[in-house]
Amino acid sequence: MNETLNITDRSRLRRSHERGHFDRDSINSILDAQPMCSVGYVIDGIPFVTPTLQWREGNRVYWHGSSASRALRNSRDAQVCLSVAILDGFVLARSGMHHSVNSRSVTLFGTAVRVEDPVEKLNKLARFVNGLFPGRYEGLRPDHVQDLKATMVLGMEISEGSAKVRTGGPNDEEEDYALPIWAGVIPVHTSVGEPIPDPRNIDGVPVPNHVQTFKL
Amino acid sequence: MNETLNITDRSRLRRSHERGHFDRDSINSILDAQPMCSVGYVIDGIPFVTPTLQWREGNRVYWHGSSASRALRNSRDAQVCLSVAILDGFVLARSGMHHSVNSRSVTLFGTAVRVEDPVEKLNKLARFVNGLFPGRYEGLRPDHVQDLKATMVLGMEISEGSAKVRTGGPNDEEEDYALPIWAGVIPVHTSVGEPIPDPRNIDGVPVPNHVQTFKL
């Protein structure tokens, strides 16, 4: 197992304010902050990118889908690239060239392996639900066996990849700071709105704590 | 030119509340709503996914980066997959299986073509800046020739791809609606914070309208 996360030169984003972060804590914190990810895979030499949700358990990252999914069938036992990117702001500079975005991103490479054991698969899916909504899974109607069969869980070791983070303001050419041009950052936030109960909820069913306190 | 956008079965996301949208208006509205995208490409059979910003002009989508970028050099004249995915909410159902996300996504396939003509490239980059911040480009310090040379702009025709949209609440099994389980939607919004001026802005430089009214 390669414990050292490899530094890649795959991103064009490295600029002055940017730092490559290759330690597990940096990578994990970005994975844990945003479940939405993009999984890249290859079919007959053609690149495909599928948005899906990822969740992390220790040094592995997982995602799931229908067992019939073309994306999952073609990712299984194949080389994939999993990318999480969070937009934190727009950086407005004094020249077009130095405009940028503040962002956090992780790119992981590896072989996607299917979780074969049904009990392990169920545990992974329960961790997925509970990772977003602590304690929710145990209160749900138990999964039907046929639904589990129709679901594929893929996992990948977090062993090759990198995190990239850009923060802060614009980084202009020294002579451009004298120009009367507004420069700065427009922050971008992801926020969670008021929960919308299903009209078919049973009267009086309480809003669970994992809904009331949900944050992204 | 293929004016009919092809329906693909590449996404596993199609469920009851979901509709595939294959008309230009649906695809364009999603591309225009979120500049962050993921570009998938292949190097030596290995899939790569790079987050970047896209912008649209008519029936073409563009993205850019350093001319030295491995991502761009390997995408040029090659088959790529460009994906935009917007998370609109978490859908909490009465079983794990029916949990979902509300989202809008576009997946485009095609060959990435470099914008060769320097004047056209400059125009594309100006449209990129002005697309986000109307009128900003004309007020900036003009781009240096060497900076333009160091920048590559790639474009792709929007001719093969699909949009997928899921909205609404959970879609549970009929017998599960009798269960005393809270189900519903937790909406997710992207919002823009108060602009943060660069401390080195010239005293009294006004905050432009394109900053004050910026929305995502």
Topology pattern of chain A, helix = H, strand = E: EHEEEHEEEHHEEEEH
* Largest sheet features of chain A: 10 strands, antiparallel
* CATH H-level superfamily title of chain A: Electron Transport, Fmn-binding Protein, Chain A
Q: Using only CA atoms, what is the Rg of chain A?
A: 21 Å
- The fold-level CATH name of chain A is Pnp Oxidase, Chain A
Name the chain pair with the biggest interface and residue counts per chain. A-B, 100 and 100 residues
First and last CA, distance of chain A: 31 Å
Q: Compute the number of structural domains of chain A.
A: 1
The percent range for helix content of chain A is 10-25%
- On the 0 to 100 scale, the average pLDDT of chain A is 91
Report the portion of residues of chain A in β strands. Answer: 35-45%
What structural class results from the helix and strand content of chain A? alpha+beta
Contiguous low-pLDDT stretches of chain A (5 residues minimum) are: 1-18
Count of DSSP H/I helices of chain A: 5
What is the CATH domain class of chain A?
A: Mainly Beta
Number-wise, the strands of chain A total: 11
Shape of chain A: globular
Instruction: State the oligomer.
Output: homodimer
CATH architectural label of chain A: Roll
Organism (chains A, B): Ruegeria denitrificans
InterPro entries (chains A, B): Pyridox_Oxase-rel, Split_barrel_FMN-bd
Protein name (chains A, B): Putative flavin-nucleotide-binding protein
